UniProtKB/TrEMBL annotation:
Protein's UniProt keywords contain Hydrolase: no
Domain TNFR-Cys: 19-62, 63-100
Organism whose genome encodes this protein: Loxodonta africana
Protein name: Tumor necrosis factor receptor superfamily member 6
SMART domains referenced in this protein's UniProt entry, alphabetically: DEATH, TNFR
Disulfide bond is among the record's keywords: yes
Annotated GO biological process: activation-induced cell death of T cells; extrinsic apoptotic signaling pathway in absence of ligand; immune response; motor neuron apoptotic process; necroptotic signaling pathway; negative regulation of apoptotic process; regulation of stress-activated MAPK cascade
A GO molecular-function annotation: calmodulin binding
GO annotation, cellular component aspect: CD95 death-inducing signaling complex; external side of plasma membrane; membrane raft
Keywords, alphabetical: Apoptosis, Calmodulin-binding, Cell membrane, Disulfide bond, Glycoprotein, Lipoprotein, Membrane, Palmitate, Receptor, Repeat, Signal, Transmembrane, Transmembrane helix
Length: 264
């Protein structure tokens, strides 16, 4: 519950210590630190509540609020329990989400549809190209437009500049997901602690800074690929949709500008 303010004055002496601020700072063991650790903040907006208040000798202990859960050993954020549409197998607990009865779904159906529809679309394009006598350049552009419109999932962008998407990506991820991702991709604990201490009560900004710092050190090449492969499927699809729509919009604007320049 104290921190060192001055070193020992003789060999048999003890250092001078000052108590930490009650309810704001703490140290849990004997130490030679020249500062107290900052008490954790239980963020109610992220499903947390105080289980034990912070004291000079013990950090704040947080827990999940009712109808929230966290399945990790250290929880900085609790997620809301899901509601089941087709019945419950196991109820939600503070450490596990609700387990729902599933409804049989044809997970392979989208790919089967693709296999059936793509040849039809290509055949239509071939007929149109023959009838309209499109040149090669126009045909390729037409094919690209059709496929982008109907099958955006088939398009993959290997080296996207992620800097403009960092904030939006952070909003899709939980703090635990961001920490796990940057940790697996080389970020050291001291840097993660530094970012946490710089924004102690702002988990949203912590997520942004963690992702931004990872991206700055990783660089553009391969960053999008590393991110998509590490994300849960539902979040990865949302990120792909966001990037796809943005790039498609930019391409359309560029095509419109090019067309205007040709006509002028």
């Amino acid at each position: 519950g104290t921190w060192k303010t001055a070193d020992c004055k003789d060999n048999e002496g003890h250092p001078s210590c000052t108590p930490c601020k009650e309810g704001q700072e703490y140290t849990e063991e004997k130490n030679y630190l020249d500062y107290c650790r900052r008490c954790d903040f239980c963020d109610e907006e992220h499903g947390l509540e105080v289980e034990k208040n912070c004291t000079r000798t013990q950090n704040t202990k947080c827990r999940c609020k009712a109808n929230f859960f966290c399945n990790g050993s250290s929880c900085d954020l609790c997620e809301p329990c899901i509601t089941c549409e087709h019945g419950i197998i196991e109820k939600c607990t503070p450490t596990s989400n609700t387990k729902c009865k599933g409804k049989e779904s044809g997970s392979n159906l989208p790919w089967l549809l693709c296999l059936l529809v793509i040849p039809i679309i290509l055949a239509i394009i071939w007929v149109i190209s023959k009838s309209l006598h499109k040149n090669k350049e126009e045909l390729e552009e037409y094919l690209k437009t059709i496929l982008k419109t109907n099958f955006p999932r088939l398009f993959y962008f290997s080296d996207v500049d992620l800097s403009k998407y960092i904030t939006s990506i952070a909003e899709l991820m939980t703090l635990n997901q961001v920490k796990e991702f940057v940790r697996k991709n080389g970020m050291k604990e001291p840097k993660m602690d530094e970012i946490k201490n710089n924004h102690p009560q702002d988990t949203a900004e912590q997520k942004v800074q963690l992702l931004r710092n990872w991206y700055q050190h990783h660089g553009k090449k391969g960053a999008y690929d590393a991110l998509i492969k590490s994300l849960p499927k539902d979040i990865a699809e949302k990120v792909q949709d966001m990037v796809q729509k943005d790039i498609t919009s930019n391409d359309e604007n560029a095509d419109f500008k090019s067309e205007n320049e040709r006509q002028s």
